[in-house]
Amino acid sequence: MSSSSDPSFSAPGSSDPGPHMMNPRLNLDSSVYVVPALTLLSCIAIMQYGNFCLTPASERSRQSFYLATIGISIHLVQIALDFWYMCYSFQSYLTGQTKDPVIFLYTTLEVCTAVGIAVTVQYHYFRLVQAMPALSKWWTVAIGFFAVATCVGGLGTGAEFQVMGRTPPPTAGPPVISIVFLAFYNMWLISNCLTDGTISIAMILALRHSRSPIRHQSLATTLRRLLFLTVSTFGLTFIVALLSLIVPALPHMIPSMSIRGQEICRLGSFILNGILPRIYLNSFFCSLQCARGTKSAKHDTKTITDSEPDYEKV
Fold first, then answer.
1. In the chain, N or C: fewer CB atoms in 10 Å?
2. pLDDT single digits (tens) 106-125
3. For residues 33 and 43, is the Cβ–Cβ distance under 8 A?
């Protein structure tokens, strides 16, 4: 990311302290300022999880509770990694020493946790779609295939980050990215978008071609909210994933990009990768709140047929 030809930049390990510094130090990583904002978004998901745990057991299923616990546990690991990286950045700034393998290790673990959260939430939405009787088995096969590709691509991306950490960095310009890394990285984000899109389309078609009419207005409203939440969530994650593909590639597409431009791209990539799992988690808990509305609607009326999807058990 850095270039030794830029006179205003002190490279890692440089002995030039700069005009206003007594000791040799690095530039403070700008991503440390983003960690508190991302943590604030995480607090929303944690509060939603606490509210979900306080609901009566009769209004939530064990499967949803297990998925929520898995998702929030992985996210707590992600928060710990963010604070660990923030502390490491401050330490590097104060001591003037940095270790690239540590940064690549952090990135590897962040990618793995993001994959875990995305797959957990996607499985939850897949179970919602599967509860609809109009779903064909081919939709199940397609969603499963894209989900497996997402896992392979994400874990492969994390492994390639470790390989890049052992490779000596170039003296100037952005780090050299291998073809294998690009293949896994594109496979991860594209498969993630395809999984989201397939689930959204399957839910739309399943509701449209459902043989049992939804006769209660409250239940119909709840299903419309679930559908809107699913489509809007996956639409937003598609945009974020697309930007996550474009932003890191800009320094390689524009070789003459300044050091400041490279730092902005790196900061943008850090923000996008941090926002993506938080979008999934907040949407997940919002869907649980929507699904709870089906229980009261089904107990308030006897006109609903037995073949209608039982969302509070999902």
1. N
2. 888 888 899 999 999 989 88
3. no
